Structures are given as C-alpha cells and as structure tokens.
User: What shape does this take?
Amino acid sequence: MFRCYGVLELMFRMKNRLLSVLQRVAAFGICVLALASCSSSDNGLGSWSGPQMLASVSVEPAASAGPEVTLIRTQHYRIYSTIQDHPELLQRVGQLMEGAFSLYRTMAPGVPATDHPMQGYLFADRVQWEQFTRGHAGPDANIYLKISRGGYTIRDWYVAYYIGDIGTCSVAAHEGWHQYVNRHFKGRLPPFLEEGIATMFEDIEWSDSLPRWNLSVNPTRALSLRKVMDARETFPLEKLMTLHAGDVVNLSGIRIEAFYAQDWAFARYLWEGENGKYRPALQQLLTDTASGTVFDPTGSLRRSYLPWNPRGVGPMLEHYLHQDLAVTAAGFQQFMSKIAYEELSQQFNL
Assistant: This one.
C-alpha cells in the first residue's frame, strides 16, 4: 500500500510559534513505555502527554554504511542519517521516535511489540532522498518523487529528508505511525483512517528534552480544513473512506489538503468526538486489525498483503460504530464544522 506524507509546504508560515533553541540531549536512562499524565491544554483542547523519562539514545558512525552516515540507535529503532550540520537534532529524533512509539501503542492496547528494531532513513537534503528513492522504491519510485515536501513509508521502514527541525520531526512522527502499523498489524487499516491517525502525531512540543503530544492539536491541518470547507472542496465521507494517498497525489493542491485535513478530522472524531463516544470502538477496530480478525465482509482488510478493496470500509465502520454510515457522516460533518469555525483560533492559542 502506498503511504506518504507530502503536505508540509505551509508548516512554517501557518504556525505562530517556533521550537526553542535545541538543547543537546544526554543519552542516558531507560525507555519507559508508560506515558506521563499532563495537565489540560491552556486553550481547552485535549491534554499533552509523553514519556516520563529520557530514552536511551546513542548517535554513532554507521561504519558499514559509509563515512558520512550516522546511526541513531534506540531500543526500537535504527535510523540512518546523512545530516551532519545538526547533531543535536539526531539526538532529538531518537527521543521523538521512542516517545511516539509509546504513544502509538496506546492507540491499540494489547498489541505486542516486536523485538527487532525498525529502520528509518533521514537524509540531509532532497537530492540524496531522490537518489535513494530511485534506487530502493522499485516501481513506486516515480509516485514517491511527486511528493513535494515530506516522506514515505515502505513496508516497515520510512524515508525522509531534512526540512527544518520542526518539519523533520513532524514527518518522522507521522511516518512512524505508518511504520508501526506495517510492522505490528496483520490486517490493513482503511488508508484514510491510517493517514488520519498519522496526522495526529505531527504537532510536537518539548518539555525538558522530552516530546509531548496533544492529539487534539494540529494548527496546520485545522487551517487547511477551514480553507477547504470555505472553498467547498471537501470529500463526502462515502468518497473519502475509499481513497488512499496514491489516489490524490496527482490532484490539485486544495484537494490534497482536503484529503489530509479531513483524514485528521475523522481520526479525531473517532478519538474524541461526542465526548469520546467512539474511542472504544476505534481501539477495538485497531486491535482487531492488528490481530487479523477485523470485521470485513470482503475479507480484504484482514491481511495487509491482500489487494485493497474499498468496499469493505463502509460495513466495517457500521459494525464497529453500531450505526448506519449516514449517521456517522452527519456527525462527522458537524465535527468538521466545529473544528473549522468554532475552535480554529484555539488551535493557534498555544
């Protein structure tokens, strides 16, 4: 399945805040999967959470890969990087990925983690990224090369390149969810839902060198949602749920924005909409997909290697949410309006 993240062009102009000056992170301690309980956001949207302790991160030469390649080694990751000018970022990426890994696991409780570390490739610039993509992405390389700014995931490894500290971390956390699903899930999530959950990890804060996430907050996606709703360029849910990133990569910019912004809004809707009514259903859907027992009359979603069949998505959602798709679509439309027109200023009041 084609998975990518390519809509970061407006990241720096949309957001009114910047990361503080990066501090070198000492590599010590043990990675702890439990998340710290944090206070509610000052803007009334959700709450911030993240790891309680620094993960064990080492940044060392990757001798077998060449003199200009650095290896970021953590408990669950081996990330190869050609970035030379930002050594503090490499430590930060290690902390980011371990923190994100512990949060990914809360989405589908009970899914066992594999022992073999997952790999990532983080390049210093787009030229190196393109060269790697042409050599390693096979027949899909030309599709990935259309990504104007971002990264992609193949099987259980992801590929990205440096686009500034904020953007690089956002892409890594986004692609990390795809990587986690590819490694740990026997079945296939509907692509629009998988993308939506991935976008929930894009906005990252830092506290005492530890990453923090608020799954309700993503100013970039919220602003995109307002834009596409104003322009009446949204997809109806019945269409949205059949799409994947490869379907939209050749569409107009505003349609690409609509796809990712609506994916984010739908994932949020299932996670927190109507006072969290659907969260248990979402977690059950994720857990069943991981075990390969997800409800799907077509059978295509029970194994990730089977051909993608979008006809299974509607019955799946109706089964887990215990309501007709039309009811879900109406509630989702109201939730999108709430994000775009009632809480937009709160997204930026951080």
Q: What stands out?
A: The longest strand covers residues 35-40. Residues 46 and 349 are 13 Å apart (CA to CA). The chain is about 45% helix and 15% strand.
